[in-house]
Every structure is written in structure tokens, then in C-alpha cells.
Design goal:
single chain; 146 residues; N-utilizing Substance Protein B Homolog, Chain A; globular
């Protein structure tokens, strides 16, 4: 069984990495951002889950960006606050490309939004991720052979 606290720390690290990346106008590489946050902020040598989460988010970034635009159409992607953008990217990544139950993912990222975001961040993150969760179910049903 995976230690829940260790997973939360990994998610926090991943959020901090993406936030640092977006806050600097994407002028540094994700690797530089990851290395800085890992060593200087978290004071760790490695974090396999955070690394995998970031790697998959970057690998599927274009698809994830389309998903965010679809489920938050009233907000231009680039205008979403960097912390909320980071939370949404990682939440969708974890729901779509990991085996973590969607309800767990939503709860974790809503809690992180309360920790890092603005007052309205939690309801925004919850709304987007929950709508995506509902769509995943329909998508999987559509993928089933008739």
C-alpha cells in the first residue's frame, strides 16, 4: 500500500515544479524547475512519483491543455492563474494516465488548492476535475465494442 502522506508530498512537489515553471513565463526548462524545487525547496535527492507525474504531464501536455479548455471554456488557458493551471494539469494527468481513483484525485487537488490557491480556487478545481471525471465514464462507455 502506498503511503498517503508520501503521495501528498509528491503531489505538492509536482505542483511547486509546474508553478515555478509557469511563474517564470516558461523561460526555464521543466527539468531545471524540477531540479531546483527538488533540491532547494524540498531538500530531497529524488521523488519517483513526482517525477513520473511531471513526465506524464509534459508528455501529454497538448492533450491536457485541450481537456482544460473543454472543461473550463469560459477561461483562456493562459489566463488561468499559474497555481490553478498547475493543479488542473496534474489532476487531469493523474486521472487519465494513472490508476488513482478519480474521487481520490479530485479530493487531493481540491485540498491542495485550499493550501496554495485563492479563496475561489477550490470550487474551480473541483468543478473542472469533477466534470472531467463524469466525461471519462462516458468516454470509456463509448470505447466499449457494441
Amino acid at each position: 500500500m502506498v503511503n498517503k502522506e508520501a503521495r501528498r508530498e509528491s503531489r505538492i512537489l509536482a505542483v511547486e515544479v509546474l508553478f515555478a515553471y509557469f511563474s517564470r513565463g516558461e523561460k526555464i526548462s521543466i527539468k531545471e524547475s524540477f531540479d531546483h524545487v527538488l533540491h532547494e525547496v524540498a531538500e530531497k535527492d529524488s521523488d519517483a512519483f513526482a517525477q513520473e507525474l511531471i513526465d506524464r504531464a509534459i508528455e501529454h501536455f497538448k492533450k491536457i491543455k485541450v481537456i482544460i479548455r473543454a472543461f473550463a471554456p469560459e477561461f483562456a488557458f493562459e489566463k488561468i492563474a499559474p497555481i490553478n493551471r498547475s493543479l488542473l494539469i496534474l489532476g487531469i494527468t493523474e486521472m487519465k494516465y494513472f490508476e488513482t481513483p478519480p474521487i481520490v484525485v479530485i479530493n487531493e487537488y481540491v485540498e491542495l488548492s485550499k493550501l496554495f490557491g485563492e479563496q475561489r480556487s477550490a470550487s474551480f478545481i473541483n468543478g473542472v476535475l469533477d466534470n472531467f471525471r463524469k466525461n471519462i465514464g462516458r468516454q470509456r462507455e463509448d470505447d466499449e465494442p457494441a
